[in-house]
Design brief:
Elements (H helix, E strand, L loop, with lengths): L38 E8 L21 H19 L3 E9 L7 H14 L7 E6 L6 H10 L3 E7 L3 H7 L5 H14 L4 E7 L6 H14 L3 E6 L7 H7 L8 H17 L3 E4 L2 E3 L6 H7 L4 E4 L4 E5 L8 E6 L3 H11 L3 E6 L2 H12 L6 E2 H7 L5 H5 L4 H7 L3 E4 L2 E4 L1 H4 L2 H15 L24
Parallel strand pairs: 1-2, 1-9, 2-3, 3-4, 4-5, 5-6
Antiparallel strand pairs: 6-8, 7-8, 10-11, 11-12, 13-15, 14-15
Helix pairs in contact: 1-2, 1-10, 2-3, 3-5, 6-8, 11-16
């Protein structure tokens, strides 16, 4: 789960500060981020790959050669600059995503972590994750990353079928994937995650069941399952559009997702987020910081961030996006210390929209305490407890609102994309900012909350 990929997307329904008196109680005032401890997660984007996969539309680049020393220097400088601007005193986790960060040298990872530890407190044992492809994860390379400070690995297996891997344009084979996972589990026991795609063109229900069985024989204690999204402009989407490959029907996608939830649940995995499953407490603490709407800083080409610029006297959270193209990004970092392409202060409503959209992705949902941090005057009960869409969703068995907070039921988590428009509409209406009603009623129209493969 990587912030550099344009996720989470801004869900702003109205710009500017909220007007007062839009509903019961008082509209929320400025988010109290400046009063909270200055902690943040850090995402570091390595934008390069050896080849582009057929389904990929991420901010990645295939180039003849990478000037790694120059990229490393810019990653270090931008991390130092943004940590200084945010006045973050402690970095809770670090995630190296991409692209293919396992193509970088362990020395680059070590240099970034050293810079972070020099600019802020990086606690001993803080989660440091590296995304890796099986084709670039020999045991010696992984050992180098562990020595550099990595203590968690996320491996893009994507499929355990060679024909599917070829269709996806992956470099590796099933045998290479197995070897990589086994090597990683030896070096990072209990902290090796694998990514798997489902809903591939032509993939049958039986084939998916076989992939799950093979996954359980191979995996460690964390699995990320992503429904393949046929993104515009990708080779795979063009093949499906041309009729060369079949598009999977929606009912099959939903069935695949429910099958995976049942199979993994029976194997002891907790379905703690729409696309993520963990057992023995092996949750991704870095990704939880996104879903809990905590501060995070994005470093590298195209990286996204959400944090307060305390050094500039900021009192509200900003959404920041770094310049996507690596050469332009490096030029900007070298000249001004960072390559921020855009920055915008998030209004209180925009922050609540993001909290709602991200928090409901998890099985814990949005706690009363977390909601109160962003909306100290207007409680969850005041917004969603009265007559309206949220109450109807509770009565239909999709949603729960109680003393613990607001969360989806097991059934509701599977159709979150269908529930959110009504909840966002109710939030906007209560705050007096609603513009357009949601389209359609909640329906089991999309499996997996619209997640996509990495």
């Amino acid at each position: 789960m990587a912030a550099a990929r344009g996720w989470p997307r801004r869900l702003a329904a109205a710009a500017g500060a909220l007007p007062g008196g839009g509903g019961p109680g008082r509209a929320p005032g400025p988010a109290p981020d400046t009063a909270a401890p200055a902690t943040a997660a850090l995402y570091v984007h390595w934008p390069y790959c050896r080849k582009r996969c057929s389904y990929c539309n991420f901010n990645t680049y295939v180039v003849p050669a990478v000037d790694e020393a120059a990229v490393r220097a810019c990653l270090v400088r931008e991390a130092q600059t943004l940590l200084r601007l945010s006045q973050v005193h402690s970095v809770t986790s670090v995630f190296f995503g991409g692209g293919t960060p396992s193509l970088a040298s362990p020395g680059t990872v070590a240099a970034v972590l050293e810079a972070v530890a020099g600019a802020a407190h990086l606690p001993a044992g803080a989660e440091v994750t590296l995304e890796a492809n099986p084709s670039s994860t020999s045991a010696s390379v992984l050992d180098g990353f562990r020595a550099a400070g990595v203590n968690r690995l996320s491996i893009g297996v994507q499929s355990l079928d060679d024909a599917e891997l070829r269709m996806l344009g992956r470099e590796h084979t099933v045998a290479e994937a197995r070897k990589a996972v086994e090597a990683a589990r030896g070096l990072f026991p209990g902290r090796t995650s694998i990514d798997l795609l489902f809903g591939l063109p032509g993939q049958s229900r039986d084939a998916w069941a076989q992939r799950l069985e093979a996954t359980l024989r191979l995996c460690d204690d964390h699995i990320s399952l992503y429904q393949l999204t046929l993104e515009r402009g990708t080779a795979l989407a063009a093949q499906v559009r041309a009729g060369a490959l079949p598009a999977p029907p929606q009912d099959l996608l939903a069935d695949m997702y429910h099958t995976a939830r049942s199979v993994l649940g029976a194997a002891g995995f907790r379905h703690y987020e729409v696309s993520n499953f963990a057992r023995k407490g092996a949750l991704s603490t870095h990704n939880l910081s996104y879903w809990r709407a905590e501060q995070y800083i994005g470093v590298g080409p195209g990286a996204h961030g959400r944090f307060v610029l305390r050094a500039e006297g900021g009192c509200s959270r900003e959404a920041r996006v770094q310049t996507p193209e690596p050469v332009a990004w490096m030029r900007e970092v070298q000249s001004q210390g960072h390559g921020t392409r855009s920055r915008a202060v998030l209004s209180p409503l925009e922050q609540l929209e993001e909290l709602l959209t991200l928090g409901l992705r998890t099985d814990e949902g949005i706690t009363q305490e977390r909601w109160g941090h962003f909306s100290p005057q207007l409680s969850l009960q005041a917004v969603f407890g009265g007559p309206g869409e949220a109450r109807a969703l509770q009565q239909e068995g999709w949603l729960v609102l109680d003393g613990g907070g607001l969360r989806c039921t097991w059934a509701g988590l599977a159709v979150l994309d269908s529930l959110l428009p009504a909840l966002l509409w109710q939030l906007q209406r209560v705050l007096g900012t609603a513009r357009h009603p949601p389209r359609g009623a909640p329906a089991e129209e999309r499996a997996g909350g619209g997640a996509r493969g990495l």
